[in-house]
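Input/output pair, single chain:
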Amino acid sequence: MAIRAIAAASLAKGASDIRNPASCDDALAALAVIRGLGAEVEIASDQWRIAGGGEPRGTVLDCGESGLAMRLFTAIAGLRDEQVVLTGHGSLASRPMGMIEGPLRKLGARVETTQGFLPVRIQGPIRSGRITVDGSMGSQLVSGLLFALPLCEGDSEVTVENPRSGPYLDLSVEVLGRFGIEIRRNRSPWGFEIPGGQAYRPESYEVEGDWSGASFLLAAGAMAGKVEVSGLRLDSGQADRMMIEALRMAGARVHEGEGKVLVERDQLRGFEIDVTDAPDLFPPLASLACSCQGETVLHGLGRLRHKESDRGAALAMELGRMGARVEPCGDALCIQGGPLQGADVGSHDDHRIAMACAVAALVAKNETRILGGECVSKSYPGFFDDLARLGGEIS
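Output:
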């Protein structure tokens, strides 16, 4: 939500205030990108002020390790008539980008990747039009088109085939509406009508709490004691709000009210759930499943292969080192609950794998060492501090 708000603010002429910002690596990378695109940024502890409409300062934009920033700002950079190079580092260098070429070329841009990977070179300007996009690899490019096409002269229509992560498109439409951009749904379940010639307006925008990061803490409460997490929108459109449903299916005690969620340990049992539209829940749910009696089945495994790591394989390997029985079964991950043993595990340079291992370590016998755990700064820099505040022994 923070990255979407940053992008929208950069496209508005005037100053926007982003309150309750996420000072994680991905959001900071997005700030660096919009500076290159001409925005002015003032950072305070609880608020960022972004003034859009400035002149571009550079033609090379570093998206860090953020896949969302890469795909979102590639489309936005396509509004310019000079070539822009988007690059990144770490796990982003191994994530596929070839899917962005076809749709942007159909809209008039000159775009090429490096054999399907970074860096990406794009030269616009893109033009309005009717386009069909394959959504099987995720929603991020579609979100980029929803941000860029309102600034083109004519009207556009985007149809998404094989949609995945549909709730994330709804989040983009929600943020765009706050900044004055109209996106209409058409007859297709995942079709969008986008009037052209629109203008972004400055906005004071408060970033809602992150259900993805909170899910690890909620899993920890269900497995190891009691946790109350505040600052979450209970009516949120975030896909990872599904964590509440999963916790209840597993038998945890869950109480919701006034922006807070309380989770307490109880007799946990195996459960079956489809998290195709919420793939970031696989890691916390895999850890939770280790504490459940019987088998847990998490459907949607195919969504994990092209994240910061091959998350299905990484979870099977690292939780397996701790004694868990985790293996693929078709397009699902099957996990047999049972006791865990502390071990040396690797993060695979993936923030969610590191957090999943840390949560599992809370109920493991003896000490667990997580190699490369500093990668949690990508999305949740304070994760280990918060885990320590809850009583986890962290060193």
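Residues 211-224 form the longest helix (14 residues). The chain has a mean pLDDT of 95.
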